[in-house]
């Protein structure tokens, strides 16, 4: 049943019509589920929510992520957004309850639930696993955002039995929330996220754990480098126990290779003057450069930008003024990092720009009174 009074106006001025039609049922009203709800409702899609936690469900509804599910709802698409350890159970239950609906899920591991359902003999013709590569350090409905998926990859795992119409439905979901659908097998997906998401989480957590017992004086020296490399260490342990356990094989393979690399550079640094030691260190840093160069940048391009560091007084409006004057100079800001020095009344803004605009940006900002603390050409 569609409650037209609670759904947003479907065709507001300036809003592109959704690809999806009918009701979308979301099981799990946490960060991902509620964010999908917000994004679809902004397009005018009828979204119904359900969650094992009544408090979480009510919070998501109060924030506008959807309406409460009712017994006579007939969803065309079901999105399962529950913790990994119950994903397979919920998928099985939803397939049985709604025999005409297509079921997808947003779990960060794809092979383990698929194999579990296969082993149970569940008919998976109407199930298509998927995974949006998006998230935040904080979870729950209160952290959900309609723009969470914009520009982010959304992996769709089809198989030989997947109907074209069902596949189109899941891809429409990804496109309606602003994501970029990308087809992979479950095996390809799990190997990929082990490298780009799961191992980085372990590495960040291990490094951040070193800070727990560090002297206070050492922590005062913490700069942007350690903040960048430990940012995701604030993630929820309960969730990551499930994710890492479900994708243990690919994660262990990469961790073993990383441990060997760490052992090699440790051996080199034990005797940094020994023949070949400096080369090991240099090659380690160089290979890291090569890896960073391969990471997709803005608009998916593998493109390196130049950067300049601008000193900004810690007063209201300074960052906005800086951006405005860069715009007047015809300089587009490709990326931005901010760093505050403890106890200082200023910050450092590291701004990435197109190489061809670096010199003009530096000269123009200096003429306007900005202090340049450094750039990539120094």
Feature tags:
single chain; 378 residues; Rossmann fold; 6-phosphogluconate dehydrogenase C-terminal fold; VC0802-like; 4-stranded antiparallel sheet; 13 helices; 16% strand; aromatic amino acid biosynthesis; NAD(P)-bd_dom_sf; oxidoreductase; amino-acid biosynthesis
Give an overview in words:
GO terms for molecular function: prephenate dehydrogenase (NAD+) activity. InterPro entries: 6-PGluconate_DH-like_C_sf, ACT-like_dom_sf, ACT_dom, NAD(P)-bd_dom_sf, PDH_C, PDH_N, Preph/Arog_dehydrog, Prephen_DH. Residues 22-299 form the Prephenate/arogenate dehydrogenase domain. Belongs to the prephenate/arogenate dehydrogenase family. It is a single chain. Strand 1, helix 1 and strand 2 form a beta-alpha-beta unit. Helix 3 (84-97) packs across helix 4 (111-119), helix 6 (186-212) packs across helix 10 (248-270) and helix 10 (248-270) runs antiparallel to helix 11. The N and C termini lie far apart (64 Å). The protein has helices spanning 31-42, 54-62, 84-97, 111-119, 164-176, 186-212, 216-219, 224-230, 237-246, 248-270, 277-294, 318-328, 358-367; strands at residues 23-27, 46-50, 67-68, 77-80, 102-105, 127-132, 153-157, 180-183, 306-313, 335-340, 346-353, 371-375. The chain has three domains: 23-184, Rossmann fold (3-Layer(aba) Sandwich); 190-216 and 224-295, 6-phosphogluconate dehydrogenase C-terminal like domain (6-phosphogluconate dehydrogenase C-terminal fold); 300-375, 2-Layer Sandwich (VC0802-like). The protein is of the alpha/beta class and 378 residues long.
């Amino acid at each position: 049943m569609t409650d037209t009074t609670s759904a947003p106006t479907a065709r507001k001025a300036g809003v592109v019509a959704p690809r999806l039609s009918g009701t979308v049922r979301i099981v799990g009203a946490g960060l991902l589920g509620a964010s999908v709800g917000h994004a679809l409702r902004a397009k005018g899609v009828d979204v119904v929510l359900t969650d094992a936690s009544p408090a979480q469900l009510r919070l998501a509804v109060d924030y506008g992520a959807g309406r409460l599910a009712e017994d006579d709802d007939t969803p065309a698409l079901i999105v399962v957004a529950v913790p990994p350890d119950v994903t397979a159970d919920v998928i099985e239950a939803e397939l049985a309850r709604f025999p005409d609906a297509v079921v997808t899920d947003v779990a960060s591991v794809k092979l383990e639930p698929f194999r579990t359902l296969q082993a149970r003999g569940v008919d998976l013709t109407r199930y298509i696993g998927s995974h949006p590569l998006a998230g935040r350090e904080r979870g729950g409905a209160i952290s959900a955002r309609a723009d969470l998926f914009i520009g982010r990859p959304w992996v769709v795992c089809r198989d030989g039995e997947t109907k074209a119409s069902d596949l189109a439905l899941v891809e429409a979901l990804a496109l309606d929330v602003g994501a970029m659908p990308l087809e992979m097998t479950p095996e390809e997906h799990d190997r990929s996220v082990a490298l780009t998401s799961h191992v980085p989480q372990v590495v960040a957590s291990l490094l951040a754990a070193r800070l727990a017992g560090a002297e206070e004086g050492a922590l005062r020296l913490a700069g942007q480098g350690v903040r960048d490399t430990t940012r995701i260490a604030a993630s929820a342990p309960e969730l990551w126990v499930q994710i890492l356990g479900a994708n243990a094989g690919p994660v262990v393979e990469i961790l073993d290779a990383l441990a060997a690399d760490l052992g090699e550079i440790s051996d080199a640094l034990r005797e940094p003057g020994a023949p070949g030691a400096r080369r090991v260190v240099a090659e380690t840093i160089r290979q890291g450069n090569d890896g960073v160069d391969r990471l997709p940048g803005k608009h998916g391009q593998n493109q390196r930008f130049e950067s300049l560091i601008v000193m900004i007084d810690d007063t209201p409006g300074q960052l906005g003024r800086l951006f405005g004057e860069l715009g007047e100079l015809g300089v587009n800001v490709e990326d931005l990092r901010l760093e505050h020095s403890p106890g200082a009344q200023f910050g450092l803004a590291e701004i990435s720009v197109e190489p061809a605009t670096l010199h003009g940006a530096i000269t123009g900002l200096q003429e306007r009174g900005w202090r340049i603390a450094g750039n990539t050409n120094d």
